[in-house]
Fe2OG dioxygenase domain-containing protein (Tetracentron sinense), 325 residues
Amino acid sequence: MASNFDSIPLIDVSPLLSNPETINLDDPNVLQVVKKLHEACQNVGFFYVKGHGIPDTLVKGVRDAARNFFLLPHEEKMKIQLSASTGYRGYTKLLDNKTQGKADLHESIDAYTEFAPGTYGPMGEHFEGPNLWPEYPQGFKEMMDDYGNALEKLSKMIMRGVVLALRGSPNLFEGDRAGKSFWSMRLIGCPGSGSAAHPSAMGIGAHRDYGLLILVNQDDDITALEVLNRRDEWIPAVPVPGAFLCNIGDMLNIWSNGMYTATTHRVINSSSKYRVSIPFFYEPNFQAIVEPLEFYKQKTGGVSRFQKVVYAEYLLNKIRNNFVG
Ligand SMILES: NC(=[NH2+])NCCC[C@H](N)C(=O)O
Ligand SMILES: O=C(O)CCC(=O)C(=O)O
Ligand SMILES: [Fe+2]
């Protein structure tokens, strides 16, 4: 469970990225980073990541591309509309995504890892299909693919750092667990409250994320994301230019037997400006079986605190609830 934090720590992860294949605690810089990661994952469930090596042009480029897309006329955007038959990929208009049964005041493009039809059997069919990107500007798809690949690599290295903190094997979350991450990405646009026809609606209602690790790329000049601490206070996640905001999802909460926290958060854009954010969701393998790992159980009292879930089933159940009346 999250503690009574009142701010979100900033962590420079560059020491984790210098020797990806031989990362280990003999390097004092690595040791320092993993301690900070562990502490943040335990007490806050959120942290900022700098020193990540993703070029600023790419980080801003995807946000600008998203912003330009959301400026297009409604009919144009609806050409790539998301539905169950597009594998839940594509565009969702304002107030069509729901959180806890309430309409959210955001529009979005949702994307998932692409895979060959049949790869994941009948469960996989629900998510089959290419991602739906706009035709214009040219190169939209290529930029999003580059971005997804870069964030997948970064997420994997951060996960190695998290495991190393307790002297676990750095590849604990690879192989059958998350070696073939079923990652996803959302391009999100939230109107400012001044322009909204629905002043009471939240951008995104209170929720936890589903998977392992989320990296949020958000506009620098608007504070809208808020994070719930144990005193039930909403702590604003003020943007740190050049840094990603990183948080933990339900699957890491389960795998770590509750040691690491999937913290509740929400989005309220009370500024007058339109806000763009792009969360990247680093998730388990589609078919991963997720239950408290022995490694973490030993460190959390020896008793499993969670039932086993299959990631694909968990995800599909969540997604279906997002798009029903
Ligand atoms: N993939 C996500 N984390 N989506 C945002 C969470 C909000 C979503 N409408 C839900 O109820 O779960
Ligand atoms: O827009 C944001 O800053 C965060 C979005 C979010 O929490 C989500 O999509 O799960
Ligand atoms: Fe979220």
Observations:
- The chain has a mean pLDDT of 96.
- The pocket of fe (ii) ion (ligand 3) is lined by residues 207, 209, 265 (CB under 6 Å).
- The radius of gyration is 19 Å.
